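Quick one: structure for this chain?
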Amino acid sequence: MKPSTEKKLWCLLIFGSLVIRLIGLGHRAMSHDESLHALYSWNLSQGLNYQHDPMMHGPLLFHLNGLLYTLLPVNDFTSLLLPAFWGTACVGILYLFRRWLGTRGALCAAALVSLDPGHLFYSRYLRNDIMVSFFTLLMLWAILDYRESRRSRSLIWLGVGLGLQFVTKETCFIHGTVFGAGCVFFAAVETRAKSLISWCKDVCAHPLMHCAVLMLVLALPFAGTLLHPLFGWDPLDNRSPEGQKRIFLIAGWIWGISVLSGTLYFNRQQKLNAFGQAMSAFWILQIVLFTTLFQNTAHGMASGLAGGLGYWLDQHDVKRGNPDPFFYVTLLLLYTPVLLAGALMSLRKLLQWPMSFFWFWGAGNLMIYSWAGERMPWLTLHTALPLCLITGAMLPPLFEAPGRKVLKGIMALGCLQVVFNSLRVNGPLSEGPWEPLMYAHSGPDIKASLLLIEEHLEENPGTRVWADDNYAWPLAWYFRETPVEYPPEIAPPIPGDISVILVPPSQRDEFVELGWIPRLQVDMTTWPRPHYHQIHWENLNALFRLPSVRKKFLRYYFFRDQPEWGENEWPGPNRYLMMTR
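Got it. Here's what it folds into:
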């Protein structure tokens, strides 16, 4: 391929990726989690109190969106601009992978990332995971480049990438562990020596070991969370002075030992300057962002050091989300089976670098995320991303070689299915509960009810809204400048200055008798039906034995066709009834 043609294709692909992420952006209503991220970002932009809370993950999203709100009008569209940018950046950064994937392979991988239903949907969604995908690719590029070149800049970029992961989301511990373990494993496998002592020395001098040691030294102070229970301390006690002292004591000792060990190691490897710059960049990011630009110093830093890992380790036993350990495999089968087919095709190249490292990364992510107690659809990005690179590398050799027409046809249909699923998920059904790729999603009638409420308040100046506190999210984002209260239960008598109430539909008759007028019933939050896509023996047995089950399965697989929600079905939609005086 001519260099000029290649550059044109990359420009077209990146521009197209941006366009499909911007079309209709902000049309749907914010979901529960998005509204939390948007409102607290807005609070930060208004100088209101924002403090790091591990329940909402890292502070980087809030600082960046808060900055955006100070520069642009505040609405759903601008709220989603940064995810669209990060999603496009995930496509663009793969230009740097041409050395390892090949010119055509990198283009194919970038196209798969661009059109992958999960990556496309969550780059139009206000969550951290699309940012994590970009920082993961940045770290991967740094590892691959440093292995070949030993350039200090790559080691520094690895530290920056890990630092950005730590201020973005607690998945940093998973990705750091998988990459670190992979670096150690392949450093050991690639080293040949005549004696054990010389082998150990050569392993320690291997560039992949440099990467592993750097990630370990940077991350270790956060692992101090694991030591708190040994002393009977609570790592989540980060607000009291005593709790903060304990967190800083343990993290400080570990940090000192890590810095000393890293200094000795990298000095011996003649990379001390690169280590110092990577360490500085990493900790500048942590200190500036966890302390909310030094406005919440002690609590913010203590929460960042111990709260993130401590909170999400506690959530492991809560098991939120989908209970199926095959959940991510199911999502891959539903949306992108071509990625699994590409992974199977790559088995013949399993012993070749970097395919072996991609496999280690992909298998490690899939096993850890499947084992973890919380299984959410947005986490499927981290199981699909390595498969996009693997499949992208396999497609050009397949279609350039003669023969194998059946396999080529299957892979071509698989790629078309990816496009079809992306158009469906991000098109007409983006506001529906039919897709297992969505969770706690907001219904299409929310914005219609907001227009009615705005119109009614304009006609009745000086009046307010009462909303049952079960509807606080996502409505708190939309009512951020509206006079509203969220009582735990709405019951007569209603104050005279309340002209709009949002109540459960079961209270309709009670308020109609008092003269209130029902205006609109809204399915506010919906969830997918987990039993529709679980892999277990009963489902598989019925699928093979019963024609009626096969017919329902095919209609669900291709069209997401399923019965209407039952009155008492769980999890049912969270509905509210809008009523006016």
